[in-house]
Protein 1
Amino acid sequence: MPKVKKLTEILANKIAAGEVVERPASAVKELCENSIDAKSGRIIVEIENGGKNLIRVSDDGIGMSAEDAKLAVERYATSKIYNEDDLFFIKTLGFRGEALPSIASVSKFTLITREQDKPFGFKISIEGGVIKDACETGAPIGTTIEAKDLFFNIPARKKFLKTTDTETGHIADTITSFALGYYDKSFLFIHNKKEIKNFPSSTTQIERVKDILKITNSEDLYQIKTDSPDASVTGWAASPDYYKTGSKGIYLFVNGRFIKNRKINYAIFQGYRGRLMKGNFPIAVIFIKVPFQQVDVNVHPAKQEVKFLREKQVMSAVSEAVNAALKEGEKILISKYQNINANQNPTIDAPSFEKKTTQKYQREKQSFLYSANDYTSEDIDYVKRQNELSEPRAYYGKTAQKNIIPNAEKHPDIKIIGQFLKTYIICEKVDEIILIDQHAAHERILFEKLKNKEKTSATASQRLLIPEILETGLAEAETIKSLMPDMLKIGLEIEPFGKNTFAVKAIPAFLSEKQTAPIILDIAEQLIEKGSGKQIENVLDSTLILIACHGAIKANKELSETEMKAIIFELFKCESPLKCPHGRPTLIKMTKKEVEKLFKRIN
Ligand code: ADP
Ligand code: MG
């Protein structure tokens, strides 16, 4: 008897399911793709227990005839491609004819469908790949597919499913990406009979993009719109004021398909070049359209990646499109400033600190003004006034001043030479030249203050006039809740506002209101990436790093001498002044000897 045997269809389907259906979110993805391919305008995703007990996707699309429905659940049956040539001309999201039989082989599956011109519909029930029932039935126009007890017949697989919250989070992400790609369709997501996400169909793309990226101001989204022979690139690039510390803010669509592609991510980065700090990632929604025959969509089991025939050209089209959009946006911004200048508003050229409200500026000054040795009399007066304000017993006289300017003697001989590229502070210390990265240094200062929960501006709070309401994934919500007491100590007041919704009522004074939503969402995302089960201490640390990073002065900002002095002074008060909390150096130095060697004065 031969040892080689053909697999049964059921087993073959189960094996295919291993690749196609990794977790509930992958089944949801396949079913939504089918609904979109069927030209639906409204898609409803209902799940129970993270999709482990029930996944139900209903649409109002074109439906299927009884005959088609019976074929659709068979392996390799598709209405989307018919011959080999079609495989290199794919206009639909599906094409392999694998999803329905795969899902049906690992769940208790029901398909109900009705075409528009038919008086009744058709229902087919399958359990673990075996057809149990097939009959005519009354049904609304469109298709509803239900998968119950996913992996009930593959316990080894079921074991790998994560918690309900985690699986629900993945499904929510899947639906969000479809909603971004198809703004004219409505998406409703229900978990355990409760509405989790609702995206009503929208008439404009920007409306959907703003809703999902949580960017309320249209002016902070720059429109991308370019056409090159290799690719048309459209979409929205968020102002560099918004950023993330991972690539999760980049949403990429190729011919309508949501994909991941590191090279295109890199191209987007290139478009943002010079505008973002190292380690920060842009936020952008990019739609690339390439001729169908120039992209291979059949390279990944879950169709999450594609291969471009003319990859380099597509990359440069993306970089240029993003760069052009940002440039255009900056032009508008600059022209606004010029208008204000014409009205003699003096605050425009001032460094970022001074642009803020007076009260906040004062608070910041208070901590920054523990200045280096060569403070001016104006500085001293200022500090005196601040001390008078904050403490009933004012300090006067020489000895008292020393107290106000702590550790001045610690580095009595640092002299500021100036600022290089509006990014590095150049200074001289006895026989060394020092370059300080202003962002990295300020990040270190803020991080240590936050960590020590000092009673300084770093932990002073500003109340938001209108609390910012934020929605996070279910999995992150728990961790955010456990962080709340520590966050409160640093001036970030967050209160639960429903299951995975929070109200941010106050933020640390050094942050601007605009930064609230991006920061909290960034924290939530870090929690997922790092794993929310990690020790709370680690999570807290990375949260503080994130807040410090968002709050620290940026590169490319002109600083006044007082501000430079303050940074240097505060930096040397830090416990670990030489590295920013991400581990980058805050300063580099060269000794007199090294300089002399370079100039060949000595050997
Ligand atoms: P593919 O999408 O690769 O063709 P599937 O197994 O996902 O393979 O679906 C098989 C076929 O069933 C599709 O080609 C389509 O004709 C039909 N189908 C699936 N879902 C729907 C739906 N929601 N509405 C209408 N037709 C559908
Ligand atoms: Mg499909």
Protein 2
Amino acid sequence: MNIWQLFHKLRPFVRPYRLLVISTLLLTLIGALAAQVNAITLQYTVDSINALVEGHQGVAAGGRILTIISIVLLSKEIINTLVTFGQKFYGEKLRILVSQDLAQAIIERFLTYKLTFFSDDDNQAGKLQTRIDRGIGSLTRLVQIFFIDILPLFTTAAVALGLMYYANVWVGLVATLIVPLYFWITYKQAQKLAGWRRMFRSNMEKKSQGIIGIIQSITVIKSFNREAIEADKQLTLQKTLTANQMHTRQLGFVFDGLKSFVEQIGVVLIIILTAFLVLQGKMSIGMIMYHVLLFNNVSAPIRSLHRIYDEMNDALIYAESFFNIIEAENEVEPSGSLKPAPIRGKFELKNVDFHYPNGHRALKNINMEIRPNAITALVGLSGAGKSTLISLLDKFYAPQSGSICLDGVNLNDIDTQYLRENIGLVLQKNHIFSGSIAENIRYGNMNANQAEIEAAARQASIHEQITQLPQGYDSDALTLSGGQQQRIAIARMFLKNPPIIFLDEPTASLDAIAAEQIKNSLDAIKQNRTVIIISHSLGQIIDADYTYVMQNGEIVEHGQHENVYAHGGAYKQIFDAMAKSLNVDKIAKTFEQNTATP
Ligand code: ADP
């Protein structure tokens, strides 16, 4: 991406603040004119004082000149202060407003993306966050640089150059010749640094991801005493970063020296040329001062050109990945337009094949039918593809081949939001947001009132417990136990009241008591709906009307519990293993003995 494309992409974000931009431009023009006052005043001073000296006039005669100069310089300074304030303030205001819009735009955008986007290695939370933060930071810096640095400095330079040409074409030419040379050096510098900057960016992302990784796995790291190894891993990255920064700085200093040298040559040339013209009697002596100060105005922006260029390059690099995220058209979740009503909940899968973006083939030639208003259990060892299958039914992912139909309509043709309105998903770990219990339940239906929230909580068998909390429904939901949080999630589903429910190991992360406690809530939510349940709990599997058994992404057996069990295959193996792990024989004996002895 080049700078023009970048500006083009930024335009829609700046457009709403046109008035702000125009005000800044006006102030810039005033500032540029005011910046030349010093040069003019000094030339006038030198020439006037010189005339007085040559005329052998004393201090008294100089009083008038000094008064004029003081008034002019003071007024200019007042105007300049106001203009600079206005410019900086408006520039900053623009930066803040654009930053707010960019941040909001990217959030709104990636919320619409497919899950594949988030499961991509390049888009891990830490990496994505760094890229977005840096993108917004440097893009808005760019807006600010443009209005606070580039525009005022370059307008000032252009006016100063104009005045030099007006005074003498040769002087103007010398000043102009230095500019492209300077530009060229800056360009070379930026070119040499671009690769290093990209590398720096990717290493910074890795570093943030590394820190997040450590924090997330701190318990494991500590329990294995792997602190030193983790620190070592970070040290390697840190060293690469340091070497990278050193090299960048070193290159920067070499080029800075070169540019300073070129600028000084410019000053010397201007002095020599003007002195020559003064000696020829073509100019007054004050013009030496005048030209040196004007050249200073010309070279000031060029001096900061490299900083501007650097920041622009930063902006370009970060903007590239920022706009890559915001413009990832392929990542937007596809949606059909059909909203078949009422939804019965009959899923039919034909020859469904699916592999994850990393190439892992998770589902192979799946053919199945999920009956409406019945409970279907998906059974299989972990990694068999059960959760993947549910993700496909929820349109989180799309199969690469084969078809999935709901009530006879291909999922591709169904409006995605409508589909998800009709599906409730209860996972192993449910997502309790920071906020009150009431807010968390209301997530199921944003228009629900307190009475409806309470009714849902009652259905999920959690109302009593909530009312016993000191702050009741206003209590912080994150302080609840795992089992309670799970029931909050189920209450949320009652409020949403979808005809289809997917339960993905809803009790796996709970202890036996909690699992038992939420059994009622689960049984209640299963009523009169199409339910698919994935579970490693015998009680929940045995309750199902129909069972599909999965192995390595394939359906290997299916039927009613008794029939599949009788088949003596994978299901029997898994079921027996579950029963053995529960020690069913001894449990049964314990119950027998306790019921036999009154
Ligand atoms: P189950 O629910 O039966 O335990 P999953 O559907 O979660 O199994 O996973 C099926 C297979 O797909 C596993 O081998 C798993 O490692 C792989 N898998 C799951 N999610 C992803 C993902 N986002 N990217 C790549 N592979 C994945």
